[in-house]
Amino acid sequence: MNRKRVTLAQVAAEAGVAASTASLVLAGRGSELRLSRALQERVRAAAERLGYRPNAVSVGLRTGSTRTLAFISDSVASSRLAGEMIKGAIDAARARGFLVFVGETGGDVQLERQLLNAMFDRQVDGLVLASMITHRRALPPEATRSPAVLLNLEVDGATDVPRVLPDEYAAGREAVGHLLERGHRDIHLIGAGPTEDDVPPFSLGAQQRLHGILDALRDAGLEPASGSPVIQWLPPEGFRLTSQLLDGGVVPQALICFNDRLAMGAYQALGERGLAVPDDVSVVSFDDVSFAQWLRPGLTTFALPHRAMGKRAVELLIDRVEAAKDDTGAGDEAVAPSLLPMPLRVRASVREVDAATAVPRA
Length: 362
Description:
Layout: H1 8-15, H2 19-26, H3 37-50, H4 56-63, E1 68-73, H5 84-95, E2 99-104, H6 109-121, E3 126-136, E4 148-154, E5 163-166, H7 168-181, E6 187-191, H8 204-219, E7 226-229, H9 235-247, E8 254-257, H10 260-272, E9 282-287, E10 300-303, H11 306-325, E11 338-340, E12 344-345
Parallel strand pairs: 1-2, 1-3, 3-4, 4-5, 5-11, 6-7, 6-8, 8-9, 9-10
Antiparallel strand pairs: 10-12
Helix pairs in contact: 1-2, 1-3, 5-11, 7-8, 9-10
């Protein structure tokens, strides 16, 4: 059944007062203006009986804040992998008395522009612009109409817009460290490498993972035993690249796969050749997607901290919204991105080897 919105005039008529009086009472200014307690209670009781709710846009125009935020992404909302970003964003917003409007563009620039304009038409206080895949992009001009934070996105050059990103570089270094601590020296890369240029150009996360891996190896006086770059990080590619490595007569001590889907394909290729993880080959990966713990053996991988990233982005955004409202300013100076650690999920895909005697096996 359709039900029209209860108006302030109806509340005033129900309470037997002027609309201006009802407005002042419901705005919490009754005592300030010395209205009697009985009158105030009568107005509030009338509003309660009628189910009156103030118009958020009107309140926003009067107070300068609607306590709403926009969350616009390419495909985060429909992605099981990255949907935790939205959960973290909503949790952080709720904790500070804000609501979040979510929109998804599917990567369509025109739709993104329309969504941004629609959000600002609804007087949102700020914007989170998010992506499922970590990459660089230009900040759309429409996004400068309010305080904004980029989530899983980076821009070229210095900017005063906060960015929240996973610390892919540190995870790459730690992946190497995890293998080195267990005696591995013969380390092969599946998905990128062996040089800094052998990586998908559009993926900032891939570049940073590879950079961390190569720096950690060089710090240990090592280089990748091999690298196999590929554009699509999917199980068939992991199977194909690992099979090619084995076809070359090499059984690696360890594989670093650039995501869990590649690792799944690597598991299958190794199994078809009668090789076991980790007894014959150790495997480390990234992302910690849902199936990583169900592979046999469970896959040691670095988790993307999506929920923490969404929470951090909204916390930074509300800080900027409140700073702008208080006219304290958020500063125009360039800010470094907030890098959140990628937790290591240690499972059963890495073995201990004797580094003094272990050699690559043909």
